[in-house]
Structures are given as structure tokens and as C-alpha cells.
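Protein data sheet
==================
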Amino acid sequence: MKNKFYISTIMALMLLTFSCEDDFLDREPSEFITQNQITDAAVTNPGIVAGTIAGIYSLMIQTETGGTTGDDDFGQKGNDIFGDMLCGDMALSRSTFGWYRASITEFQGPQDFTFGDNRQVWRYYFRLVRSANSAISAFGGSDAVPELEEARYNLGQALAIRAHSYFYLTQYFANDYNPSAEILPLYDDIEDVNGPKVATSVIYDLMESDLTSAISLLEGFGRSAKNEINQDVARGILAYVLGSRRDRWGDVASQTGAVIDGGAFPLMTAEEIVGGFNDVNTPGWMWGIDLTSEIGLNLVSWWGQMDSFTFSYAWAGDYKAIDQDLYDAISADDARKAQFNDDPENRFLLPLDKFYDPGRVIGGQRFIETDYIYMRVAEMYLLNAEALAKSGNEPGARERLKELLDLRIPDSSYIDGLAGQDLLDEIYLQTRIELWGEGKSYLAMKRNQATITRGPNHLSFVGIPIEHNDERLTFEIPFLEIQNNPFINTQNE
């Protein structure tokens, strides 16, 4: 499995070599194969476009994909840390080297469009959009239904990737969901390079259309590895998109329910949740990447920033911890309490037993072999409970939430007495606890319109209430985009 992924990654990078010019939407996705050649070849040989799809998955773990040389620029998981810190559930409890401190935890980046973090997030997702558009165009466009099965599966993945990228752009670059607000340029064709911002509703229509088509096209797709998007993952992405609208809860319940009822992914057990979150083959993982030392990720990686058992920043003094108030809200008999180190001397509350290299030697893992997680089925249970509660089916919501909690605590019967806002608050709390450090807390904060208040183990803004739509929690359209795109001359509304 690992050797297979390594070989496919190298092949993908050979097929899909991206430039590092300042233009965020790189004009040529490959220096070896032109778009016309890809399109012509795809008619009879969809495998040539499969290289483009594999290249996109490689970009998701590649360093400097955001166009910087920063040690926080390493693809999707780098952006996940941004979100976890902005929403306050992840505390920078000690800062030795300065990563994340000023720009993210002190909110300087989201208030100044010249900061590199704005460009980093923007460029990363639009590179994925550009690459997905290349594949979509090769198969005949967004509405195509290719005759060849392999082509249908590849097109489905490309559509889902484009929607996934736009979803994160809507979350990171818009203060709140407002259908009429113009927030982002829409690029749905390989020829699109620069364009004006369009209304949120237009972006959401594209995402829903892409994902609905992807779910249909991916019917029957038996993926070779979990780094690929299959039908269940596409349903999960669609559930997140619809949930962020806050007005389609029946559809959210339907999509998440379909994943759960499909039975492909069991919930992680109490033993598995303290097992390191380091193996993509964990049955409860829906989407993730199987990493090997040959790929070459090391200090600059999610593990390098998060894991004390990896040779990098978390080991050397940049501590990422669970917010102390959130930790204190975890009951003493909850298996998830053991994920965190509660040192009575300093209470850094590091995730020493949630994320770790199996060797468990402090600073021991030099080249990354522990895997990246993007989505697991617990998210579907929690989203399903939230959607059922918000659509008026509180009994169903309680039962769904208890299915998860029965694997975490000895007695979940207290859930039976919850209703209304109390039930919603409990679902939100359990979402934050269950998914801590996995890049989903920021999404839940916006979806639930929460007000965040940092606990005492943060280095700044402790105890200050901050609403979900505060401008300090949202990135700005970067300076270089405004400078280079003649259709955009203002920042976020």
C-alpha cells in the first residue's frame, strides 16, 4: 500500500508540475502535456487524466503549495491548523519559534491583506480549482457523463475536489453566509484566469451541482486507496456545504444518513481514539493519505507542527494544546479525556495520546510515516445529530448522538433529558471534543454561529468573547490578488 502510494505520487508529480509564479491561478497545469493533448487523450484513454487527479491529491500534502516558504505551508492540513487556532479550540500554549503567533493567534493576518497567510490559503485552493478544471474540461465539462467507467470516476473526483476547494474558500474568506454578498471569483473553466467576485449563492450553486454530479458519477467506484474521493466522501462534503447554509437541514440529514446507513465505516472505538490517529487503514477513517518516509515530508508538515514524538516544532517548544476550558468540559469518565496530557505543573494539555508516532520517542520521527486524516465517519454521526435536531427530529438526534457517546462514556442516558437549545449545545460541544485537532472546529463554529472565548492556556485574547462572524476570524483577499486581478479592487465586504 505505502509503496504503491509513493510510486503513484511521483508519477503524478511528473505529470502535473506546477509553476511557482505569483499568478495564483497558474496558467499551465503541466509543462509536459498541454490541455488540448489531455482533452484529446481522455476520449480513449482516461488514465492520462487520472495522472492529473493523482497530482491534485499530491498537492494536498505538498509543502509550499500556498506559494510561500513558510514552515506552516503544507497543504490542506496546514490550513486545518489555521482554522483550529482561529476558532480558539486549539491553543498555542507556548511559542518558541513564532509560527502562528502573530498572524493567526493574535489575528494580525486576517486584519492585514499583505500578510502571507491570506495568500497562502487563497493560492492553495485556487491551484486545486485550476487543476480540477483541467480534468473536468478534458472529460467534456461539468455536465458530461462519460461512457467509460474510469472516466466517470475520474470526472466525479475532479468535481468533488473543485467543490471541496470552493467550500473552504467560502468558509475562510467570508465572515458569514450571506447569499447576496459577493465574496469570490468563480472559475469553472480551464480558460478562466481572472474574474470578478460573484454572489455567495452562485458559488453555492456550483458546489451543490458539482457534488450532486460527483455522487452520481462515483456510484460503484471501488477506490484503490483512501486518498481518493469516493461516493461516501462526496456525500460528506455535500453535507458540510449544505450545513453551512443553515437552511437545508433535511438534506444534511439525508446525506449523512446515507453514509452511516451504508455501513462501510464503523465508529472508532475507545481504544482506537487513543491509538495515535496515525494509520489511514483505521476502519472509521473515510478519507486520508497513506504517507511514507520516501515522500520526504519531515519538519515542515502537520505532524511536525503537532506531534511531540516527531522531530520538529511541537517537540522543540511550539506547543499546540486543547483549549483549557474545552478540556475541563470533558467529563472525567470520558475516554477522550485521556487523549491529552494534564500536567499539573503547567497544564499545556498537549494531545500526547491523540496524535503520535507509534514509536513514542520524543522528537523521534524524522521523516513522516504517520498518515494524514481528512474525514472520518464520526463527523457524519455528529452532523446527522445536528441536522436532525435543527430540522425538528429531536428523538432521532438524541439517539444518533448516543451511538457515538456510548463508545466514549459509561452512561449516555443524560442525553435523553436534553431538548431545544440544550440539545444543540451538547451536540456542538461533543463535536468540538470528538474532532479536536482534525480541522473541523472552525467549520462547526461558523455553522452554529457560536461565540468563542479563549481559555487561560492561550497566549493572547484570553477571556474575550469573539463572535463567529468577527472579521478577525476571516482571511482577507490577498494584496497580490488585488494587484494582479483587474476585476477585484476591494477586500472582503
Observations:
- The chain has one domain: 2-275+373-484.
- Residues 149-173 form the longest helix (25 residues).
